[in-house]
Every structure is written in C-alpha cells, then in structure tokens.
Request: fold
Amino acid sequence: MDLSTLFRTKENLNLDKSTLTVLRYIAIIGQFIAINIVFFYLKLEFPIKASLIVIFVGLLTNLFLQFKITGNQLKDTYASLFLLYDLFQLAILLYLTGGIFNPFSILLIIPAIVSSTFLSMGTTIILGFITSLILFILTHYYLPLPGLLFENFNVPSFYKFGILIAILIGLIFLSYFGIRFAGETKKRSEALNKLQEVIAKEYELESLGGQAAAAAHSLGTPLATIAVVAKELKKEIGDNKDISKDIDLLISQTKRCSEILKKISKKQIQEDIFLSSIKLEDLLEEIIDSFKETSSKKIDLISDNDNNKINIERTPEIIYGLRNFIGNAVKFSKSKVKISLKSDLNKIEIKINDDGPGIPNDIIKNIGEPYIKSKSIELSSNSGLGLGTFLGKTLLERQGANLSFKRNGDLGGALVVISWDPKKLTNS
Reply:
C-alpha cells in the first residue's frame, strides 16, 4: 500500500464551505421530517420538544456557517469543529429516539467519511474514534421508543453488538475509501496540470517563433533603407575620415542585423517544416539522433516492414510521447535499444525494446498512472517513470494511439508497443 495517498499537505486540508452548508441543510431538513413522521404519523412517543430544540440549534449553527464564516474554503480546524458538532447533535437525537436500534444510526459515520475525503488524517482518526465511542454508548444507553419492544421481549445482546459491528465496519471501510479516493484524485489533478503546462509551453514556443518571423520581416525593409542612406552619406562626405569611420560602423552593424534577421526567418521556415507532415520513419530517426548525441548506447531503428510509408501530422503531443518512451528505453537499457516500425493499410505499430532490467512486476499493471514507484532494487536509482510515462501515454492516446507494456521483450528488457489506426494518424 502506498502510504503517500493517506496523507495530505496543509494547503489541501480544506473543505468547500458551500458543500458543507448544503450537506448540513439536507441533514437538518431530513431530521425534522423524520421525527415528525415518527411522532405524528407512527404515533410513537418520544421527547419531541427536546429533539426539535436540538435540530433548531443545528439550524442556527448552519446559518452562522453560511453568513458569518468568511471565505469559500474551511480550513481543517474549522471544518472539523462543525463536523464534530454534527456528530454530537445526531448522537443526542439517536439517544432520544431508540439509540442504536434507530435505523438512522448508520448516519453517524458521515462526519468521519466527509473528513476522510477532504481533511487531515488526524481529524479523520479523531472523528472515527469519537464515532465508535458514541456507538458503544448508544448500544447500552438510550430512550426506547414505545411500541417497538414488547414488555416481555428482550433483544439478544449479540443482536445489539451485531448492529454495532456492522456500523463500525462501514465506518472503517468508507473512511479508508475516502482517504484513498482523495489521495488519488489529488495525484491525477497534479499530473493533468503538468500535462497542460507541457502543452501550453509547446504552443507558446510556436507562437513566439511566429512573432520572431513577423518581426524579422518587418525590420528587413527599414534596415535596408538605413544601409542605402549610409552608403550615400559616405559618398557625399568624401575625405572626412572621422565621420566616414562612424558611417562604416553603421553600415557594418546594419549588415549584421540583416544577417541575424535572415537566420531568424530561416529558423522559422524550419519550424514551419517541423510543424508540417512528416514520414513516421523520419520522425523516429530525428528523435533517435537527438539521443545518440548525448548517449553512447546503441540505438537501432528497423523499418523493413514499414510498407505504408505514410505522412503524419507532426504534433507536439506525438513528439513528446515518442521521445518519452524512447528516452526511458535509453535510460534503463544497459547498452542497446531496438525500435521497430511496422505499418500497412490497417495498422501502424512501433515497438521499443531495451536490454535493461525490464518493467518490475509490482508496477506492470499500473504503468501510465502518475507517481508510481517500484520496490525493485534494480530501478531504485531512477526516477520519472511515473509522471513522465503518464504524460507520454496520455498525449499519445489523445492522438488515437493504443499502448501496451510487457516486462520482457526481444532484448530481455522492457517492451513498449504503440499502435494506431492509420486513418487516425495520417495528415488529411
């Protein structure tokens, strides 16, 4: 079990005020309707005035929460106080209306469940402990509802404790589920935020490149005009060496600016090509070449079965995704990486093999999840398998890819298989 999902940092220990307010209004209305039905319709006598007072006080606390507590988020401390009050309020109502035999006694677990989803582990444990204590008390001490129990009929003790144990099991199970669910939700939210940052950065760079090209085009004509005027001035000045020297400097610097702008324009043309269609084989070769510049490991591309030779849209998503999985193969391999490309009219398939330790058994089923870690000693020194793989997988799937992972491929290490339907990948 990953204990990191059981704990949340201080900035995440809060509960939306409107959510808690609505939940408490629902509880208050439900309590009011329930006791009136029991008293007036079912004709079961119990201290209804005391019960109504308890509900009214709960209404006042909720109005205080709604109108007097500022901010949209309740910190852990304030939220826990309101949940604790709700717990005691319901306990009093249950004491007045049959104790643990009241079918609404199951609702005692709600404050702890809410806490497990939004608040700290400590708050959840405290509320869970208090809930358990209240359940024990209500098992032995309560005001019975007349008519529910016959005078000569005693409920077996095991039945009482059976109800108690059932509620406690529900409390533990649902609280644990809430904690795990909140932790996983937080992780996925963080991973998706990272994903959005990556995509935004790619498009920001693309936009900056277009702006640079526009600036280069706009500045070209004024610089050419300055160069022409400077040359004419040099002719008119004649033998004045001091002024002529300054004009030569002006001409040389103007020429230098023009050369820089030409390079920017040329780079933008290259970027336009970068963003256009390209054969998948050529794209793989470019990515592989970038890793060959920084790694001494042998990286082979086998494309003998690439029968379709189709052009694909060269998107940042595909480039980032392929680079991620090829980069992982290079990082985890011992000395060799083999990438095979196979395509026909029905399927495009890329297989990425390496001769590394392979994908550990404890994470093979969770590949593609954010922030996963392996207990494998062989991979303990490496990082980024979780979030990086999650981003790469998500980006490729957004482009219509299907991904599968195997512990051991042809070279003995990890095997990643990426496949597309050609219709989803081709540049129309």
Observations:
- The radius of gyration is 35 Å.
- Residues 157-237 form the longest helix (81 residues).
- Confidence is low (pLDDT under 50) at residues 1-7, 377-384.
- Residues 197-274 form one domain.
